[in-house]
Amino acid sequence: MNSTEWLNYYRQNSHNRTEPQWHVPCRLALSTQRALARSLAHFQLGESGEGNFLLTSAAREVPHDAAYHEALKLFIAEEQEHARLLGHLVHRFDGQKIRRHWTHSLFRFVRRALGLNFELQVLVIAELVGTAYYRLLRARSHDPVLQQVCDQILCDETGHVYFHADWLGTSQLCFLPLEREPWRARFKILFALAVRIAWLDHRCCLESIGVNRREFFREARCECIQFFVQLAHGNVPKSARKSRSSTLEAMSQ
């Protein structure tokens, strides 16, 4: 893993970010707005962490890679920027941000259980499920501001998944073949649980915009499959930028 290239990628990604057009009126039904506000508030809480445990784990387990530590800080800053954008959406839909929720507490407890590698697994799973959620929100909602926020978050999440896949793939180079399969099995089990928990938590919101359980699970599984492809082939920041541009082009169509 070339941490310096990833650091440069995150630095570049922080420039030329367009602010959503918050002034555009919202024409969604009030019931849909209420469902969106509740759901987005849960995601906003999840994106608002300071990342102290992650940074401490990285400093302990990868002590000599200063560029990776700095890249992690910029990754966390992007997550916090997502929290800011989601907070604006929650208020746009006349909702209130929350300070705690059982899904957030469970996520924090699980990801701190077994060290940096495991924490990154859980973070990636959250990113994959979130990507499926935002893709469906963008496709099915008819609020231009919500779509603009989803565009930005989805572009960033592409880089986030590739970033973590690069680190996890590199860390597995020292795994024996028999060690890789239990890792993959654990990831798939955690992913399946996360998708089901997300559906329970966000079902009302997704159904309010016409998304059913099968569609959500199918979208999430596609993201998981793509992650394993990326894990096997590795990635560099140039590819992340190319993917980000492709995502923007596809969304503009």
Walk me through the structure.
- It is a single chain.
- With 253 residues, the protein is mostly helical.
- It has one domain: Ferritin, CATH 1.20.1260.10.
- It is 79% helix and 0% strand.
- It contains 10 helices and no strands.
- Helix 6 (115-140) runs antiparallel to helix 7.
- The mean pLDDT is 87.
Feature tags:
253 residues, mainly alpha, Ferritin, 10 helices, globular
Tell me the layout of helices and strands.
Elements: H1 3-13, H2 30-47, H3 52-61, H4 66-92, H5 102-111, H6 115-140, H7 144-171, H8 177-208, H9 213-233, H10 237-252
Helix pairs in contact: 1-4, 1-10, 2-4, 2-8, 3-4, 3-6, 4-7, 6-7, 6-8, 6-9, 7-9, 7-10, 8-9
Largest sheet: none
Element pattern in H and E: HHHHHHHHHH
Number of domains: 1
Range of helix content: over 70%
> How many alpha or pi helices?
10
End-to-end gap:
34 Å
Question: How many beta-strand elements?
Answer: 0
Strand content: under 5%
CATH-defined superfamily: Ferritin, core subunit, four-helix bundle
Mean pLDDT: 87
Spatial extent as radius of gyration? 18 Å
